[in-house]
Design brief:
The structure is a single chain. The chain is mainly α. It has a single domain, classed as TorD-like (Orthogonal Bundle), CATH 1.10.3480. The chain contains eleven helices and two strands. The longest helix has 13 residues. The radius of gyration is 16 Å and the shape is globular. The chain starts with 8 loop residues before the first helix and ends in a 26-residue tail after the last strand. The C terminus is likely disordered.
């Protein structure tokens, strides 16, 4: 099933995982993902030359507690309403309920959660799920992901996060209908979950994990920006 801006479920899960805080085994997780995401090869080579705390510090600076401001807070409410929480979080919580899911341990508007939901809805050939996936894209992701992806490309000091910004930007420009049979094998899914990259939505076959939150000064709901 093709949802506008969505390549396939496994790629959405990989992008969600890259937003997670890098744990000590994060490099090995990236190495395991290379067959599915060869575009990670150059970022991984750079990370292999750096101490883990440098990577962790860059993650914190970009997403959670940069000074004097956080460049890329991965939360819809911050980009659309200028603060954490607000009506968009309640809207998304209601959306997840309609999809038979629930965000656990993270704000409902966290980008990793949204990408995981998009992956779940894009799996299989259920017209009802396809409709929900299009709603999630049109009413939520398309309204702020273009700005977030540009910010990540502009402010990321590590290649990993600049490339992540590029990959997220592609979602705003593509209506990809790639084959979504197959997918991540059990070991790869387990590694992503251990890193904190997947499992934020609870529902049939899904287990919630913990997450983080942030305040930032960005504001302004500019509606669906599209791709620039």
């Amino acid at each position: 099933m093709a949802i506008p801006g969505h390549p396939d479920p496994q790629q959405a899960l990989i992008l969600a995982a890259l937003l997670a805080y890098p744990e000590p085994d994060a490099r090995e997780v990236l190495r395991d993902l290379l067959p599915l995401a060869p575009w990670l090869a150059d970022p991984l080579a750079e990370l292999d030359q750096l101490p883990l705390d440098h990577w962790q510090g860059e993650h914190t600076r970009l997403f959670f507690s940069g000074y004097p401001r956080t460049p890329c807070p991965p939360f819809e409410s911050v980009y659309r309403q200028g603060r954490m929480g607000g009506t968009v979080v309640a809207e998304l919580a209601g959306f997840y309920r309609r999809a038979g899911l629930e965000a656990r341990g993270v704000p409902a508007d966290y980008l990793g959660t949204l990408l995981e939901c998009l992956a779940i809805l894009a799996t299989g050939n259920d017209p009802a799920r396809e409709g929900l996936g299009r709603e999630l894209w049109n009413e939520h992701l398309s309204r702020w992901l273009p700005r977030f992806s540009r910010d990540l490309q502009d402010h990321g000091e590590l290649q990993l996060y600049r490339v992540l910004g590029e990959r997220l930007a592609r979602l705003c420009c593509e209506d990809a209908g790639r084959d979504t049979d197959g997918g991540l094998n059990s070991r790869e899914l387990g590694n992503l979950g251990d890193w904190g990259g997947v499992g934020r939505l609870a529902g049939p076959g899904n287990v919630g994990v913990s997450g983080e939150s942030v305040e930032s000064g960005k504001s302004g709901d500019q509606g669906g920006e599209g791709c620039t």
